[in-house]
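Typical record was shown:
=====
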Amino acid sequence: MTNNEQDILEEIHTPNELSDIFGDKITGAELLQKNFDSVVLLLTTQNTGKWVYKFYKRISIEPLFYKQAKSDLLAKCRVILNEERKTALLLRYIEGRRLNSLKSQPDNLMEYARDIISKIATIKNPPFAERFDTYERWREYLQQNFEYIDKVSIKGLFKQINPDYINILKDSVTKIDWQVVFESPCGLINCDLHNENIFLMPDNTWKIIDWEMPCIGPSSVDMAGLLENLTLDPYQYLPREAVKMMNLVKLFLLVNDFDNKHEKIRLQDERLIFLRLSGVMG
């Protein structure tokens, strides 16, 4: 365990603090996920059932999203800490089947994906982190994020990555016909859909968790990311430009997730960066 991972465990709420918040005794706690800036626990209470405790140290609009957005897609949520770089949520445990556990043929998975994307568009009153639902706004979004990449590159964040890659990326982006992507409907998109965060309920409705960076943009961006996560080839179903936009958005999310205090990029993040770079330039 690294020092950062140990630090994160020392910052989360204690069982006694959580019991006071619930007004109920915590009878069990299972660690579901832990890394340098987040912890996820499954909590069992004496009288109020199971809850997921999510703590992370990064900027996110997720607390505002759960407070403001209205939809049956969303889990019941209590925000118990909301500071600039510290967030703690209690999410009602979802008694459903994760999408990654469903044994389905590609046609069925594609049908699931279409249904999920269409349901996300029906969420009412959602706050959002970024907006790129027109070609003009997309160009502004690109300029803003490339300026940020230049800024963190000067500070040495990308010192393990050949700067030529970034220059090639910028050149590649200017040669893509982005107008094609805006032929698909635009609206709320999750931007980081993962099949383990999507649940099929007993009544055949869906629940989706993890709303840290929702945006307003082309629905095909979410579709491309979800198909990739379902191990379906998005190029078979979507324009190449939509898949490239998905890779570029995910690259920007990765970069913006880094904290300048880190001396170097973690190996797993470096691999993800190369994956997204190749997805745009390939």
